[in-house]
Amino acid sequence: MTGSAEDRPAGEGTAGDAAGGRTPAGWCSRRGLLAALGAVPLAATAAALTGDGRRRPDGPDPTATPPRYFPDHGSDGHRTLGYDLRLAYDPEDARLKGLARIRGVASARAHGITLDLAGRLAVESARLDGGAAQVRRHGSRLVLSGRRALAEGQTFTAEVRYGGRPAPVNGPFGPIGWDRTGDRYDGTLVASQPLGAPSWFPCNDRPDDKAAYRFAITVPAGHQALANGVPRGRVESSGGTWCWTYDHPWPMASYLAAVYTGRFVTEGDEVTRNAFPEHLAEAARHDLARQPEMMRLFEEAFGTYPFATYGAVVVDADLGAPVENQTLSVFGRNHVDGRRGWETLVAHELAHQWFGNSVGIRDWRHIWLNEGFATYGEWLWSERSGEAPADELARTTRRLLASARQDLLMADPGPRSVFDDRVYTRGACTLHALRLTVGDEDFFKVLRSWHADHRGGVADTPAFLAHVDRITGSTGGSTALRPWLFDRPLPAFPHPPHAP
To answer: Which residues share a beta bridge with 231?
Structure first.
């Protein structure tokens, strides 16, 4: 996900200054995306707040296990193995009917499981391990209790039949989740980062709970349904509906799951598939055309692409920012101009497929591992595409950061600051400091092995520091990183000899 206009460092320009990202300052400022609030669908207005007013020490206690950000979401009572979501959506009355089959493993002995589901979606019935389950609701918390207790380590299957008119859920960053595009086909989109997944299906909504997914989505004939993963075909029924099926066998966090409905032009090959409104087809086709080149660059830099498919969906609505939904990122029509003026965002969301999606984070406090890496992917693409080199972009960005407030702790920014723009730009500068310290050979070895070692899983900042030292064979890399991560004042870049 890209950061908001409100959060960019002081002195940084708006996206309009970028003019296609052809100057260093323009490339760094491409996240000034939020349109006037009334023109943006609610799910896309995840504007981050900065500064939570709390005093924090200059570094987290390395011996303590800090509490999770957003503890009201997610449960530690079970680990999810897979979701089978069978959905039917009627655009005429915006009503969703769903059957969620959830496979999981109990983390401890318990009489039931706890899920997250928005209160506006009513539960019609539920089952746990084949028997009827008692359903209790506490706001957006859904508790299912079975006839027998679950033992620690026991696998189980839960079924929840539910329905209603889904809508964005309110959170600390504004309304997010399932939303309507407002176009003439009554389309829908999902932009859930970080807490919007319960707006449309029952889930264990925490970033470290990753599972396989299967989607079967029924819509009126003539409408399309898109979702994460590999398309498995469309079945037409005599009742005037089409059912679209997708398999996503790779581990995925709930906030990255997505469904889009409406009418699209779909194009691509076995690996890349894009979708966009017909009236935007020519411009979108041009703006997304260099995704295969980006894929080749990132495979060189990060390692083999972790999934079997990738694509971008352009919805017929203005979005505040694109979102890196796994294997199928979403962009607004305002990110398409036919001149590749927003191409840096295309690179950003693709880079997230390695860092943020394949390698997830243990908790939202470690979000720099997502956004700093994806922002550095933008800089690599700038260099490869003949624009400003990464070193120039990093030094320009650092100058901009130096004029901003020096009150952000990268390793623990606080729940209300996870989308502060400095998490993105200082995060990318943190990686550049590592590159300057260890040199290109070891730097890219660190990135490729980081992905290889944690592919499909989750990790955190202490693990990354240990990884850097292990791969480079010294503590020089982690020593260079610590001021960027654990001190509020902005460090200086190390001097050559390892300048790119």
So the answer is: 246
Picking from 131, 293, 325, 301, the residue whose alpha carbon sits closest to that of residue 215 is: 325
- Provide the mean pLDDT of the chain: 88
| Stronger pLDDT, 306 or 14, i.e. the higher one | 306
Q: Which residues pair with 312 in a beta bridge?
A: 329
Which of 246, 222, 220 is closest to 233 using CA atoms?
Answer: 246
Q: Regarding beta strands 110-116 and 141-150, do their DSSP bridges make them parallel or antiparallel, or are they unpaired?
A: antiparallel
How do residues 424-443 score in pLDDT, each as one tens digit? 999 999 999 999 999 999 99
The residue among 234, 223, 227 whose CA lies nearest residue 186 is: 223
Tokens of 450: 């980081």
User: Residue 210 — φ and ψ, nearest 5°?
Assistant: -110, 140
- CA-to-CA dists, residue 385 to 291, 339, 340, 389, angstroms: 12, 14, 12, 9
CA distance 293 to 298: 9
d(CA 204, CA 82): 11
List, in sequence order, every residue forming a beta bridge with 323; answer none if it has no partner.
330
Strand partners, 255: none
Contacts of 347 (CB under 8 A, 6+ apart): 294, 377, 378, 380, 381
pTM over 0.85: yes
Rounded to the nearest 5 percent, the helix, strand and coil shares of the chain are: 30, 30, 40
The conformation of residue 22, written as its DSSP 8-state character, comes to -
Contacts of 73 (CB under 8 A, 6+ apart): 116, 195, 198, 205, 206
The total of other beta-carbon atoms located within 10 Å of residue 406's CB is 11
Q: What is the DSSP string of 165-183?
A: ---PBP-BTBSBEEEE--S
Q: Is residue 500 within 8 Å of 391, Cβ to Cβ?
A: yes
Q: Give the alpha-carbon dihedral of 22, 23, 24, 27, to 10 degrees.
A: -40
- For residue 17, which amino acid is it? D
Q: Find how far residue 29's CA is from the centre of its chain.
A: 20
68 within 8 A of 363, measured Cβ to Cβ: yes
Please state the φ and ψ torsions of residue 485, each to the nearest 5 degrees. -95, -35
**In what side-by-side order are the strands of the sheet with 177-180?**
177-180, 188-191, 259-262, 224-227
